[in-house]
């Protein structure tokens, strides 16, 4: 005859809700009484671990498909040059290495649980594995930032090269490994994967008991990957994160993909090699062309500002002494309309430009290229405006430029002119 248990005592004796609770032996449990809620969480934890392992294996499969079904054939047949392959597939080999290392660790943990008869995977510490691997995820940064440009380059190459277009169409229709997916869909897989990790880890964190040895590691792993995602965002949008009080329909925070598009357009306009380019700051701005030089004294009254994306890029190779060889810097303005991004005007070349701030209107700055019209800008927040001014001045200083303001008009003296 089984032992009769009072349902009200289940939570008191539950080893998860009350780790110091009394172990009792009943017919259907093995010296580990859990309440219904904790049994559900235990199942959720096991299912989440299975999902993490399975989806990482599937992700690795898609990376290998990119390599084996696209890169290798294109390289072997000469459909694309080495430079074009690097543009379209970015750092694919790095991502394959990262996935292989993480997958091996996950499989080893799973096999150890099976060997130890840990069917519920209670002893599998996913959080610690991700902490060990978190630095490897930095390779996602380069891929994510350049993915939009890779997709655009692929589209252009398809238009220009009929054989490439035929190859992709036939592959999609007849290659069973591709599951009728186009190459562009496979190129998005790493972007989708890095965004999935925090969601999986958050679900695992909620399903893991407070006393579990992996609880804190799961939290730290989630935060580390979120930091990496934040760094990817920062590379695209700069440091601005707060909003000014304007109509939400006109002003909203930019997504990562918007930042990627802005940087892609900027690189195309400048015709710079992406390998030597750094994006110093990218964010939403408001700009206008003032009617005269008295805009500051009038505190920008009657001036209509237009929303825009602005990006400050530098180009040059760093030497061992941290100096930059052949450095250039430019500001590019990009406008979005109906999902399409295009440059508004020619870039501001900072070697020929001056940035000034007037005490009468210090939340706005003026940027003028030598011999061309002046424009005034303000960011979504005064602090972000200051960040822009600091970065602009730093770049003009690094380029050997001297400037000052007289009677609200810029006076520029450039070295070696």
From TrEMBL:
Record-annotated DH domain positions: 44-235
Sample GO molecular function, one term: guanyl-nucleotide exchange factor activity
Taxonomy, superkingdom: Eukaryota
Classification via Pfam families: RhoGEF
Subcellular location, record wording: Cytoplasm
Keywords in alphabetical order: Cytoplasm
Organism in which the protein naturally occurs: Littorina saxatilis
Family annotation (InterPro entries): DBL_dom_sf, DH_dom, Endocytic_GEF_Adapter, PH-like_dom_sf
Record-given protein name: DH domain-containing protein
Keyword Membrane attached: no
BP terms from Gene Ontology: positive regulation of Rho protein signal transduction
Classification via PROSITE patterns: DH_2 (PS50010)
Gene Ontology CC annotations of this record: medial cortex
